[in-house]
Design brief:
It contains 11 helices and 12 strands. By secondary structure, the protein is α/β, with parallel strands linked by helices. It is globular and about 65 Å long.
Length: 324
């Protein structure tokens, strides 16, 4: 006798009872981009619904996020002045440190994850100190200033640090620096498997971080490599990462599943700007049922093995979950 699988599909309530993968507001981290000034809320043309905001607008945005039941943010800073080493990110009065303190003062219940990198702060748009001979980033020199940046974030009140530059040894470097300075309980979310991807294009508009020469293929991962992706994440786990990540998400769900099966650590995915922009463009042209496809995409991330979803869709998804 063949099995009638549709017996558990015919009634909506039974479908809910047997549903294997669920989605919650608690699964999401929402990215925010802060710059100096006042009254600034500039929409990014390539990412409808995403804004560069001055700190006063960021504080208002946190009110709206809390109303939606979203309490976790990933904070990026955009300084007025950039230089070769990203000095603004190494200053206690820089844009990121100032924003952390202000958000914590006004919204102490918000969980602030900070992007720890240099691409937004450097005049060359790369993720650290330049190795001019090899036209790449000097890994070990960047590790040194990354440790300084981590302490700046910790002192300002960050709840978790997320180093995104893909420097070898970054996790053990930050873990040792944080521990030595009394921040042994501050968790690290590793960008452990981050690919050199074309899906990042619109992000460079909002973060103003387009490289002035070359690309990031010499330090971010080759999209063709599966075994290396697993090794990257396992290495970060050994070095002391608390949470692992795969970035981008949509074209790399096989990698998400591979890593899920090779570690018991919590696993995040970054639903990146290009993925967001594609759905926005398709929805604007009525090529897809936008809400349905967004939800299907989020479920896909969870089904593949993600525990946490970093997404520009988070506010929309929170509203959709309220009416499900």
């Amino acid at each position: 006798m063949f099995q009638r699988f549709r017996r558990t599909r015919l009634k909506g309530q039974l479908r809910s009872l047997v549903r294997e993968t669920t989605l919650s507001k608690n699964d999401f981290i929402y990215p925010l981009f802060v710059r100096s000034g006042e009254g600034i809320k500039t929409e990014v043309s390539s990412m409808p619904g995403v804004f560069q905001m001055s700190l006063d607008e960021i504080l208002k945005e946190c009110v709206e996020l809390k109303k939606l039941g979203l309490y976790s943010i990933l904070l990026f800073g955009i300084p007025d002045v950039k230089d070769s080493i990203g000095s603004d990110s190494l200053c206690e009065h820089g844009i990121i440190a100032t924003a952390i303190r202000a958000i914590k003062q006004e919204h102490p219940e918000m969980f602030i994850v900070t992007d720890l990198c240099f691409c937004e702060y450097t005049d060359h748009g790369h993720c650290g100190i330049i190795d001019e001979v090899n036209e790449t980033v000097n890994n070990d020199a960047t590790l040194e200033i990354s440790a300084e940046q981590a302490i700046i974030h910790a002192k300002a009140g960050a709840d978790m640090i997320a180093p995104s530059g893909m420097m070898d040894g970054i996790i053990v470097t930050l873990r040792e620096a944080l521990d030595e300075n009394g921040y042994e309980n501050l968790p690290i979310m590793a960008y452990s498997t981050k690919f050199a991807s074309g899906y990042y294009g619109p992000f460079r508009d909002v973060a103003e971080s387009t490289p002035s020469f070359g690309d990031r293929s010499s330090y971010q991962m080759d999209p063709a490599n599966r075994r290396e992706a697993i090794n990257e994440s396992i290495s970060d786990e050994i070095q002391g990462a608390d949470i692992l990540m795969v970035k981008p998400a949509l074209a790399y769900l096989d990698i998400v599943r591979d890593i899920r099966e090779n570690t018991s650590l919590p696993l995040a995915v970054y639903n990146v700007s290009g993925e967001y922009a594609m759905l926005k463009a398709a929805g604007a042209r009525d090529l897809i049922d936008y809400d349905r496809v967004v939800m299907e995409t989020m479920i896909g991330f969870k089904r593949a093995g993600a525990d946490i979803i970093i997404s520009y869709h988070a506010k929309e998804v929170a509203k959709m979950l309220e009416i499900v």
